[in-house]
Every structure is written in structure tokens, then in C-alpha cells.
Amino acid sequence: MKKYILLAVLLAFSGGALAYSQDTEGVSRVFVTPQGSIALQLKGGFPKAIETNQCQTNNGWAGLKTSDPVLKSVIIAAKSSGQKLTVTIEGCEGTWFKIKDLYMN
Fold it and tell me: Is the pTM of this model over 0.85?
């Protein structure tokens, strides 16, 4: 019984958000700026990121204001080839879901 009470207390204080979430789908749109920002949308959206409450103010995009060129290359390669991309989301980057890492499937 003590285990159930402890679990209930932990869930109550967790704030509802998991540390990260992952969504897998093809890339539908890519956004870039001359300053180096990049963002993407998945064909099926980011249902797991929404379910785990990663970013309440999200606008349907996942991205980074500043990112490594390799990350940008993976996004463009996935979009160009039609391959699915697994996007790990952790919190917000402004109104975007913040990309933690990517896996090209």
C-alpha cells in the first residue's frame, strides 16, 4: 500500500511532462533562416510530444535557433529521400518543440 501512495505522490509532483518524447514520421516541411535556425514539421505531427506535454506553447514545429550543420544535413536528407525521421523532443525552443536529437530510419 505504501508503494501506491508513494507512486501517487510522485506522479502528483511530476508536473505532467516526461523528460523527453519521440515521434517518427516523414518530414513534411522544413524552415531555415540565414542566421542558422532550422525547424521541421512531421507528416503526422508530434502526437507523443503533445501527449507528454513537452511544450504547451508549441506551434506544430520542432527546431533549434542554433544547431550543428550535421543536424541540418540529416533533416534535409530525410526530407529529400522521403525517409522517416525519429525526432526526440525535450521542452521548448520559443514556440517550437526543442529537438534533442534525431534518428534517420
Answer: no
- Cα distance between residue 15 and residue 84, in whole Å: 31
Half-sphere exposure of 13 (CA within 13 A, CB side): 5
Of the candidates 65, 92, 77, 99, the one whose C-alpha atom is nearest the C-alpha of residue 26 is 77
Query: pLDDT tens, 34-89?
Result: 999 999 999 999 999 999 999 999 999 999 999 999 999 999 999 999 999 999 99
Quickly list H helices, the chain. 2-12, 47-51, 69-81
Spell out the residues 6+ positions from residue 33 whose beta carbon is closer than 8 angstroms to its own.
none
C-alpha cell at 9: 505522490
Provide the grid cell at 101. Answer: 536529437
CA dist 81 and 27 (Å) reads 10
User: Are the beta carbons of 87 and 46 closer than 8 angstroms?
Assistant: yes
**Could you tell me the CA-to-CA distances from 99 to 4, 41, 102 in Å, in that order?**
34, 12, 8
